[in-house]
Amino acid sequence: MLPLATEPSTLQVVWYVLIAVLWIGYLVLEGFDYGVGMLIPFLGKTEKERRVIVNTVGPLWDGNEVWLLTAGGATFAAFPGWYATLFSGLYVPFFLILVGLIIRGVAFEYRAKHPDARWRNTFDWMAATGSFVVSLVFGVGFANFIIGMPVALAEGSQHLHVFTGGFWSLFSPFALLGGVVLVVLFLFHGANFLALKTKGVVHDRAEAFSGKVGLVAIVGGAIYLVWANLAYGWGIVGWLLTVLAAVGLIASWLAIRQGRDGWAFIATTVAILLVAVWIFGRMWPNLGFDNSAAAVPLDRVTAASTELTLTIMTGAAVVFVPIVLAYQAWSIWIFRKRISTKNIPDDVAVAA
Amino acid sequence: MSPETIARWQFGITTVYHYFFVPVTIALSLLVAVMQTMWYRSGDEKFLRLTKFYGKLFLINFAMGVVTGIVQEFQFGMNWSEYSRFVGDIFGAPLALEALLAFFLESTFLGLWIFGWDKLPKKLHLMTIWLAAIGTMLSAIFILAANSFMQNPVGAMYNPVTDRAEMTDFMALLTNPVFLATFPHTLAAAYMAAGGFILAIAVWHLARLNKANRTELEDTDVSAYRWAAKFSAWVLIVAGFGTILTGDFQGKIMYQVQPMKMAAAEALYETAGGNGEMAPFSLLTIGTLDGSRPVFELHVPGVLGLLAKGDPYAEIHGIRNLEEIYNERLANAEFNLPVDAAENSLQAAYADKLRTVGVTNFVPNIPVSYWTFRIMMTLGFIAMAVGAWTLWALRKDKLPKSGALLNLALLAVVLGPLFANSAGWIFTEMGRQPWIVAGVLPTASAVSPGVGAGTVFASMIGFTLLYGALAVVEVGLMVHYAKAGLPAEVPPVEIKGEDDVLSFAY
Q1: Which of A138, A144, A184, A256 sits most deeply, having the most CB atoms within 10 A of its CB?
Q2: B400 near B394, Cβ under 8 Å?
Q3: ipTM exceeding 0.85?
């Protein structure tokens, strides 16, 4: 057998970074609509208030979710070994994520389609539950990537790795904390978004809630990141990112207490971004796998596609990523106005 | 049951369900865009009302396609990890490009279309639905290019060092003859589905309004529904002929790259035609329960040769004959699925390895292949007939009459193309068995080795129950809003002040 390369090529590095960027985009963008989703039944007391909350993310959530789909597709294309082992290894968590995504997507689209309080209440709770499950499971999942998921070669295969940990091993105390922290972070991020996008009673409630949940996010996030750095750290840069993320969370909390909603939202955006950078820095070069029991390592070299595939994909990304960013930014700009219960029509508009 | 069997069931259930919504979405997005364009150009309120009405139904349908679509991308990795690893270098690229080029376009611009009526200038707003429609079509291009690779693996070679298929030529994926035939066929079939959908609802309302003493509003409704019914009937008929022509083209290519699939579709057990003889087309073949041999056959001479190779006297390989050829080739490690066409380089390169992997049965499920093929065609013809009848029934100022027969016809024109689409896909995918990548990777070798049967079974039950519940909700909403009919009036859209009421809110 020919020796395999052990040093990553430039394109492999590029694609690792691009996949990290897609995940970061997903966590930052859909992070706020998960937070908003979880808050619908709690911050919306009346039907119109709930509709205000849903409509802040109504035009945006589907586009945000495509970041996840693209991250999945890019992993499949650029690192098929990573995709194959990750998705089969975390079978049950991915199943839960799919169910969560399905019920929250249906809830956003169908809640307004029937003028019945019980119908809408059901879909509001589905949106909240789905958003919660997806946030929690991804939090547990990313913590496990930090720890390193144990893999070994599948029986009879020289190239396919399987996860050897088993389902229950995913729920270590660190991983469970990771799940809770991500939920709290998204609640903070979502409340800031809601404060930024609304007026009146919903806005006031969102601000007040953000002021409370912000403290929990700061304390929980600090414990989690210090633990991560001490047990699974990756040096001084990791600590630097941690400090900056903490500064971001604190700045956001201070900003929201002064009614500066825009700054509060930007600060949670930056904090989530920095945490994600920390995680993807930690996952290099083993992609979040623990190879100590694997005869052949599963890493950015063995999992990668050929240079030809990576070249073609790079060409497409160079042309289309800026275009996508431009029109998504334009769409966010179009729907920039704050809304309040005054903007919500009395009857549910089901027209297209 | 083995994990492979359950994983196949799960793939079948989730894919067939997902594909109920996809064809309607692809074609209806563009047809709604056409309606809005008619309004933009003519200013006729009728077209705006139609846009809003069919747009609403489109969105109910689209939502289901979106939420079930993500399962499709994830389950390749969850249930078919060795497949994902083996072909990821090739198959992953169109999937990633689909997300990057198509899904972002669809979701962002559809969001802008739904919520942007009072925020965007008319022309820009019209552009958003066109871009969303283009997104759905791009999506079809990439997913069909990926699927066509599974049917006819071109543009790739086998690398023994990494033990996987690797891309050699990306353009070959997009010029794969199977893709070039499948894309127009699938697209045309999608337009049949959307045409039937629009038609049935419009004709149902016309029959309801077919009474003396209509109000003024009802008169304008009749005029709008008449336009929609005639427009969709033409779409249905033209798309129907397109489906037939492209289907014929696709069949001829399939006879080259997967002769076994087509032999199974014909239940043609023994080689027929050639040497001055004509190959018969089966009108009805009833086989033994295990599908191993025919017990009753009714044939039209010559037609099969024409369909397969454009020559009534052509020789068409039968199932038994192909089995012999394949067994012999496998034994000699010179495997290649085509019999009458050029060899496939990936299949040839993998032959040596394939012998060690082992394939025992080259024959797909014959009754499934045979019947799905016929159900597909029959339902398509019925839908076209309803389309032609509609044009006849609406000639001059005539309107259709309500009744059981009409309802039956309308049900057939809605569900016929949908089920025909499903049957076509089941035929394509089941007919490819025992291969997941035709002539290279057997389906049994492709499943995730680390995932137990119990896990797959539990998730299959989970998806089935969830999808079942969603189907009840979706059909309920569709029927409710289809019956509700055109919106009475569409309030004028203006740029609004801060506290003014939004023209659309969830």
Answers
A1: A256
A2: yes
A3: yes
Q: Span B7-15, mean pLDDT?
A: 94
For residue B14, list chain A residues with Cβ-Cβ distance below 8 A.
none
pLDDT attached to residue A351: 46
User: pLDDT tens across A93-127, in order?
Assistant: 999 999 999 999 999 989 888 888 888 899 999 99
Looking at the complex, report in whole angstroms how far the Cα of residue B8 sits from the nearest Cα belonging to chain A.
15
- Tokens 């893709």 locate to B179
Q: Following DSSP, what letter does each residue of A146-191 receive, concatenated?
A: HH-EEEEEPTT-SS-EEE-S-SGGG--HHHHHHHHHHHHHHHHHHH
CB proximity B90 to A under 8 Å? yes
CA distances, B445 to each of A162, B257, B435, B448 (Å): 15, 21, 9, 9
Nearest to B37 by CA among B115, B107, B97, B125: B125
How far is the alpha carbon of A54 from chain B, nearest alpha carbon, in Å? 7
3-state secondary structure B474-488: HHHHHHHHHHHCCCC
- How close B495 comes to chain A (CA, Å)? 13
* B167 vs A92, A94, A306: nearest CB: A306
Scan for tokens 């209806």, then name that residue.
B28
Residue A102 and residue B63: Cβ atoms within 8 Å? no
**Closest residue in B to A19 (Cα–Cα):** B96
Contacts of B97 in chain A (CB under 8 A): 73, 313, 316
pLDDT given at position B358 = 81
pLDDT of residue B397: 86
User: Are B85 and A89 a contacting pair, CB within 8 Å?
Assistant: no
Q: Do the chains contact at A309 and B90, CB–CB below 8 Å?
A: yes
In 10 A of CB A203, how many CB atoms?
Answer: 21
Query: Which of A88, A109, A159 to probe the B interface (max B CBs under 10 A)?
Result: A88
Q: Which residues of B touch A89 (CB under 8 A)?
A: 450
CA-based nearest residue to A130, from A183, A88, A79, A78: A183
CA distance A190 to A206: 9
Under 8 Å between Cβ of A71 and B74: no
Question: What is the pTM for the complete model shown?
Answer: 0.92
Taking only the tens place, the pLDDT of each residue in A62-88 is: 999 999 999 999 999 999 999 999 999
- Please report the pLDDT score of residue B334 as a whole number: 81
* Average pLDDT in chain B: 90
AA letter at A68: L
Partners of A352 on chain B (C-beta within 8 Å) are 32, 51-53, 55-56, 58-59, 113-114
Return the closest-CA partner of residue A74 out of B77, B423, B420, B496.
B77
Between chains, do A155 and B79 touch, taking CB under 8 Å as contact?
Answer: no
Query: Shortest CA distance to A184 belongs to which of A254, A147, A136, A144?
Result: A136
Q: Which helix (H) or strand (E) holds B287?
A: strand B281-287
CA A345 to chain B, closest CA, distance in angstroms equals 6
Contact between chains at B95 and A111 (C-beta distance less than 8 A): no
Alpha carbon B228 to its chain's center: 24
The confidence score (pLDDT) of residue B298 equals 73
Note the helical H segments in chain A.
Answer: 10-43, 47-57, 61-78, 80-89, 91-110, 117-147, 173-197, 200-232, 236-257, 261-283, 307-334
pLDDT (0 to 100) of residue A2? 42
φ, ψ of residue A115 to 5 degrees: the values are -80, 65
Is residue B85 within 8 angstroms of chain A, CB to CB? yes
Query: pLDDT tens for residues A162-198?
Result: 999 888 899 999 999 999 999 999 999 999 999 999 9
pLDDT at A5: 54
What is the rounded CA–CA span in Å between residue B17 and residue A117?
29
H helix or E strand, kind and range, residue B393: helix B366-393
Q: Which of A46-60, B183-197, B248-262, B310-324 has the lowest mean pLDDT?
A: B310-324
Q: Which residues of B touch A81 (CB under 8 A)?
A: 85, 88
